[in-house]
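Batch job 17 of 40 flagged for manual review because the log was empty.
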Amino acid sequence: MVMFLQVLPRFDQAWHATCPQNDMRVLFATDGSKEAAAALRTSIRLLNASDRQIDLLCVAPKPSSAQRHPEQYKRRILRESTQILERARGLVPPETAVNMRCAIGSPAAVIVQQTDEYDLTVIGPKGTGAKTDNALGPVASRVIEHARGPVLVAREVQSEGGLRALIAVDGSDASCRAIETFRSLFDSTGAEVCLMHVAETPWIHLGLGDDWESYDDDEKDRSEAGTLETELVREGDLIIEHARELLRPLEVQVSVTTRMEEGNPADQILSEADRGQYDLVVLGATGRRDLKHSMLGSVSTKIAWNASASVLIVREPD
């Protein structure tokens, strides 16, 4: 059965009452594109298989003001959306609880409005009609920017073995929440996890520019930038150790390694993601912009755009 909602500000209470109560609720947005199908296959593979419910959502654009037969348009959209949803349903294991829903409106706006109702929202990087040279389509970009809950930009998984996840940590609440989201929602059996912290290069923020390269080692160590760099590296060790503690409940089934780098966070994370051939990059997105806590909030979108792997973005709690 497909539910139709022309206006979708939030799920209505009557619909909630008819839904089975599962531990994990996942919203998956599909438009019938091959990227959406790949995203669904990836999310099925990466997420825990037990106690999950998937809500498949297809959003059709509003009719133009010149549309002369709105009811006819609505019936056609329902028919076409039902076909898209049925094809997506065929990719989901039969034992998984699934609801199929279609709506009319702005796809990005409809999806964003629902993100805080779910444990996870899954989107493909692009939709139907997106330019092939764009890493993210306009809908995915807006959902990432405005979502109030965790979002997984799911790309095709190439490896055949267990999950390889790169978790970037900066000690923020969003970063800790991202680890907890990964721990609770994803299938970590036999997974290889790398906890990575990037200490931002302090001399850039202090306006030293190219002059920094002319400093000898002693001058660097005695400088304000050198002192700050030492502090940031020391703090990074503590951040990684705290992240390991958050993963402790998974220690029987997960192999954990750590990595400390210095430089531009987005560049270093993307470089490691490619080098390590990871299936998933996990990020916390924070709104804080001070020197010690600006690590991920300003770069999560850049990583979602440029990573070849799937990217999980978890926002800082309100």
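Reviewer: the log was empty due to a logging misconfiguration, but the result itself is present. Confidence is low (pLDDT under 50) at residues 6-21, 289-297. Unflagging and moving on to job 18.
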